[in-house]
Amino acid sequence: MLISLMCSKCMEESIENSGVVPEGGLEIRTRAVPVQTVGLYRGICPNGHNVLMMADFQQFELLFESAMEAFADSYYRESVSSFAAALERFYEFSIYTLLISNGVEIDNIKKMWSSVSRQSERQLGLYVGLFTSVFGECPKLLSEKDAAFRNGVIHKGHFPSPTDCFDFGRVVYELLNYNIRVLRERFADSMFRAGEVNRHEASKQLKEGEIPIVFKMATTVSLMTLDEPLPMHEAMNAVSKRLALQRGQSQSLK
Question: Is residue 218 part of a domain?
């Protein structure tokens, strides 16, 4: 998966030179670079400016986007794997959110998480238990059929059909959007604090005196989106169009 970096200094100079932002907007030269788990990106633009940008994304947002791109490129096993990983990382984000809402310090949550970080079943159990204790009912989860399909692809080497892959992605898409809405209605502040964990980890890579530009692109599943989500097929079409545009643009950052 690629994301686009831009040179903010060049953009500032363009505005200074023109005096105003042109009616058609500024032409921003970008370069697509591979996404990173810890989202701190460095580069040098053609005019010699240092580019330092920090991505403001949750891992599950990027994993779901990666799954959509893999589907658009006909990599269906990889797509299913990333859809499944997105859901698991959303469980992690939800656990952080619910514990923060209950007054648990982030450092203590990290220590707890280290004890279950390699055991997905324990993570799921923790998520179900916390959610149920807060909301009084079990959260919506993958059905046994969908879970078996995921396990067959990831653990048994099954090659899914495009239709089965799309249907699995749609299930995950609906689960994520529903549960994000449920969390936001009661724990918006705690969600924001949970979102700061990634930015804090990225900031550890900064050198003294460095101040990055924080950026966020539109992802199919996003904590920031308040609108009703698009139907899955429309969301997929949007990703396909973005990929085609991205691949057709000239790259200018080194």
Answer: yes
